[in-house]
Amino acid sequence: MGLEATLVPRIVEAMDKKPRIPVIWLHGLECTCCSESFIRSSHPVAQDVVLNMISLDYDDTLQAAAGFQVEEIRKRIMKEYAGEYLLAVEGNAPTRDGGVYCTVGGDTFLNILVETAEKAKAVVAWGSCASNGCVQAARPNPTGAKPVKDLIPHRAVINVPGCPPIAEVMTGVLTYILTFGTLPELDRQGRPKMFYGQRIHDKCYRRPFFDAGQFVEAWDDEGARKGWCLYKMGCRGPSTYNSCSTFKWNNGVSFPIGSGHGCIGCSEENFWDNGPFYQRLSNVVVPGIESTPDQIGKTLTVLAGAGVAAHFGSYMVRRGINAAKKEKPVPSAPEKEGGDQ
Amino acid sequence: MSRRVVVDPITRIEGHLRVEAMLNDRGVIENAMSSGTMWRGIEVILQGRDPRDAWAFCERICGVCTTVHALASVRAVENAIGIKVPQNADIIRNIMFLTQMVQDHVIHFYHLHALDWVDVVSALKATPAATADLAQKVSPTWHNSSPGYFADVQGTVKKFVESGQLGIFQNAYWGHPAYKLPPEANLMAVAHYLEALRWQKEIVKIHTIFGGKNPHPNYLVGGMASAINMERLNYVRDLITDAARMVEGMYIPDLLAVASFYPEWTTIGGGLGNYMVYGDLPQNGIGDPSRFRFPGGVILNKNLGEVLPVDLTDQGQIREEIAHSWYEYPAGKEALHPWEGVTAPKYTGPKPPYKQLDENGKYTWLKAPRWKGNAMEVGPLARMLVGYASGRADFKEVVNEALGKLKVPATALFSTLGRTAARGLETRLAVNWLGAEFDHLMTNLKSGDSATADTAHWEPSTWPADCKGFGFTEAPRGSLGHWVQIHGGKIANYQIVVPSTWNASPKDGKGQHGAYEAALMGTPMADPLRPVEILRTIHSFDPCLACASHVIGPDGRKLSEVVVR
Hints:
The complex is a heterodimer.
Chain A: H1 8-17, E1 21-27, H2 33-38, H3 46-53, E2 54-59, H4 68-80, E3 86-90, E4 93-94, E5 103-104, E6 107-108, H5 109-117, E7 122-126, H6 127-132, E8 145-146, H7 148-151, E9 157-160, H8 167-180, H9 193-196, H10 207-211, H11 222-226, H12 306-309, H13 315-325
Parallel strand pairs in A: 1-2, 1-3, 3-7, 7-9
Antiparallel strand pairs in A: 4-8, 5-6
Chain B: E1 3-10, E2 17-23, E3 29-36, H1 42-45, H2 54-59, H3 68-81, H4 87-113, H5 128-138, H6 147-162, H7 183-203, H8 205-211, H9 230-259, E4 275-277, E5 280-282, E6 292-294, E7 297-299, E8 318-321, E9 335-336, E10 368-371, H10 380-389, H11 393-406, H12 416-446, E11 466-475, E12 478-487, E13 490-497, H13 499-503, H14 515-520, H15 532-540
Antiparallel strand pairs in B: 1-2, 2-3, 4-7, 5-6, 8-9, 8-10, 11-12, 12-13
Helix pairs in contact in B: 4-7, 4-9, 4-12, 5-6, 5-7, 7-9, 9-12, 10-11, 10-12, 11-12
C-alpha cells in the first residue's frame, strides 16, 4: 500500500493505544458481498479489526441484537460521538417513489443514510453499489438507485469500488485512516490512489502475451491452456483501475484473469452498461511482436458493433464512438489522478 | 391483552427483514406476517441484454450465497440454447457449489445463528480447565482444546468487554432466560465463533482457484473458464481435507452439543410441513435427475411415505401469486408460471416512516410462489427429508446417527432445531461429496479428458431465433430457479424464484401463510421486548433477503397492542 517500513511501529502503536473509533456500517440496496469480502481479509484478519481496531457498533449483518435495540444503538452513537464516528455504507439508496424500495425499521434507507451521514467524521462507500450505483443502477435503474456521493453531495466520500472490493483493500483503507488520522489521498473519483492508481492490464502477468500478440481466441482453446492474453474474450483489464493484478484475491491466491476468465471491470463506473462483457474493447491497439505497450489506448470502451449500438446509446458507448472517430489511440500513461474512466 | 411485537431490522441475515408478531394472553405467537421491504429489480434490468452476461448480473443478487445465481443462470441459458457442458465443467461447478454450501452453512451456524443459543457474556464466568474438559468430551479429535487455549480466548473477550466498547455485541439479550448453556459451553462456542471466522476465508480459496475471486467468482455459459494445473489441484485437495477436518471435528460436535441443551426446540417452529427440492449435483449431466446427489421431490403434510415429482416446466406446478405483494399483474391474472412471469412493482404500503403494515392488504416486495397451490418450505431440512424419504442410504445414515445421539424421534426434525440440525447434517454430506467430486475430476484428467467448455454454441448466430430455458440449483437456503426467454440473441424475459421467496412468502390469495409465518405460530415468548425466540426460528431458515415478518391478530382485527418498535 505504499507505506515505508519505518511507519510500521507507528501503526502498531496507534492500534494499541487509541480508544477504538465507533463505526456505523449501513446496508442499503446491495447483496452483502462487501461484508463477505471484508471478513475474508487475511491481514489484518476480521477478528482483529472488529475486536481491536474499530468499535463496530452498528452492522445489521453481524449484530447480536435486533429490532429497536439496534436502532437505539445507531441513535446513541450519532449523539454521543457526533463528529467522531465513521460511517461505512454498503449498498445505495433507491430514490424513486420516495425511497420505498428499501426500508429499515419502517423508515426509508434514504432518510437513514442522510441522517447518519450528517454528523459522521468521514464517510466510506464500500463497493461499487455505494461508489457508483452498481447492478441495481444499471439500465433502466427501476428503483432510481443512486450512489452515496450523489445523496450527500456536501460530504466528502471515500469510494472503495469493486464488486466486491478486495478484502485487504477494505481493511487497508480502514487501517490507514486509523493510523494516520487522515484520509488516504484520493483521485478525482474519490478512490484511494494507493489501491486504484494502476490499471489491471499494467501489472497483469499475462501482459507479455498481449504485447506479443498471443491471445485466447475461444474458450478452452490452446491459447487458453497456455495462459495467453484474454483481451479478445472481452477482458476489461486495459480499462480497469484496481489492485487485482497486484495483491490478487483471497490472500494472493489468484484473480479473475489468473483463473482464466477476463476481468469484467467491476470497479469501474457504469461497468454493467459498458458491455456486453465478452465483446472486446475497442480502440486498443493490439500490438504484434514489434509493438510497445505505450501504444495501448487508455480511454477504452467496447467495440461499437451492432450488439452495442442496440444498447440505447449510453454515455460510455457514445464516448467510445467519438473516441473511435479520432482514429488515434490515447496514450496509456496513467495520469496523476490515477485514472479518468 | 394481546401484544404486537415488531422486529425490524432482523439482524444476522442477508438483507433487511421485518417481523411483526401478535401474541395472545399467554405470550404465545398467534399470527404472523412476513414482508420483504427491499426490491432491486434485477429481472427488469436483465431485459434486452446478452444472455451470456446474465450470470454476472444474477450473481449479484446475493453475495452471501455467492455463485448460486450464476450457476442457475448459466444453466438456464444453456438449457435454452441447447448446450451440454463437458463433464469436467459439471464437476468443477459441483466443487464450487459444495464449497459454497459448506462455507455458507458454517458461517450461518457460528456467525448468524449461534448468538441465538450462546450467551457471550456468560463465557466470562467459565473455568478454562473445565472448558477444556468439555471440549475434549465433545470432540476428542479437535486440536484446539487445551486450558491455555480457552484462557487465551477468555482473555480476549474480557479485554474487549472491559474496554466498554461492546460493538456488535452491545444491547443484545444476554442473560435472557431462554439461554440454557452453562458458561463452559458458552466459552467453547465463543472460541469456535472466532475459529470459524478465521477458517471461512480459507475454504473459499477453492472459488478463487477455479473462478478468480470470492465473493463473486466467474462462471461461463458453455462450461468453465478455469485455468488449472497440478499445483492448483493440490491446493484444492488440501483445502478440501482441511474443510472435512473442521466440519467433523468442530461444527458437527458443537451442533450436537448445543442442541442437547435445547430439547424443547424440537417441538417448536415446525411450520408448514410441506417440503420441496429441485435437486442438484449432476453425475451424468443436468438432464439426468436420476443421477443427482441431491434428489428432487416434494413431501406434503410431513408424509415421509411419499415423494412426489416436481417439474419446473409444468405451468400448473410452480406459480407465483401477488395477492399480498406490491406488484401488479395484467388484468384477470392471479398466478403466473415464471416463463410467463411479470415483475411490475406497485407500492401501496404506508408512507415511511411507518409503524406497521396492513396484513389484509399488500405488505411485501416478495411474491408468493406456490407448488400446485401449496405453500412450501425449501432448504436443508427439505433436502434431508426428501433424501431420507427417497431411501438414500447416505442421507439415512447421517440423519439416524444424529437422532440416536440426541435420543429424539424422527418427528423432532419438523422443528426449529430440526432445521438447524439438518443444515449441519447436510454439511457432513457436502464435505464428503466435495472429496468425491475432486477425485472424479482427477480421474477424468488422468484419462485424458481435459475439456472444460463447449464453445460450438458460443456465437449468438448459432442460437435459435426464439428459445426459452430454465436453470435450477439447490442453494444453501433452498431450491432456486431461473427462467429465461431469448429472442434474437437478447433476453426477452427473465424470472427468478429464490429460496427465500418460498420461505419468506406472504399469504396467497387463499390466505395460506408462507413458511416463516407458519413456523412462528405457536411459539411461546418469555419476554416480548427481547425477541430471542423469534430470532431462533427465523434464523433457522437462514434468511437471505430484505424481508419482514409481521405478527397480527388471527383475523386481522385491531387489537390493543404494545408496539415494541
